[in-house]
Structure to design on (138 residues):
């Protein structure tokens, strides 16, 4: 069974980073072999660097980003953070599915987004900014 205190500490740091829009300490809370599942790519990206690149970019793509609800498993090792944001004039809702290890490090980060128009706007903007760079982490 995992350590819920470690997960809680990591989530607290994550929310502080998002609130300040400063993700410079992000590598400190991500496992080196983390897996990132993008809402616009079928194949997952591997490694801390891929997740840092994606999240550091998307924080600048989203407008009016806010978390609206949080759900966690009883042991605290899996968390879902529901959010809303705008991209290129399109409203979207989404969820971050985050899995932690016993040390509280993020080992999996999966993003789901709706509606399709918001997802397409996000995919287009992310593709322009980091599409080629992310491919190296497939």
């Amino acid at each position: 069974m995992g350590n819920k205190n470690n997960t809680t500490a990591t989530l607290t740091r994550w929310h502080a980073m998002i609130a300040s829009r400063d993700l410079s300490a992000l590598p400190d809370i991500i496992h080196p072999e983390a897996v990132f599942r993008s809402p616009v790519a079928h194949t997952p990206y591997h490694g801390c660097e891929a997740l840092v690149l994606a999240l550091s970019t998307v924080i600048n793509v989203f407008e009016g980003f806010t978390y609206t609800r949080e759900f966690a498993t009883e042991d605290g090792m899996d968390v879902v953070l529901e959010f809303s944001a705008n991209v290129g004039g399109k409203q979207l809702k989404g969820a971050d599915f985050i899995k932690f290890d016993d040390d509280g490090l993020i080992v999996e980060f999966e993003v789901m987004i709706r509606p399709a128009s918001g997802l397409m706007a996000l995919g287009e903007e992310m593709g322009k900014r980091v599409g080629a760079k992310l491919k190296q982490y497939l």
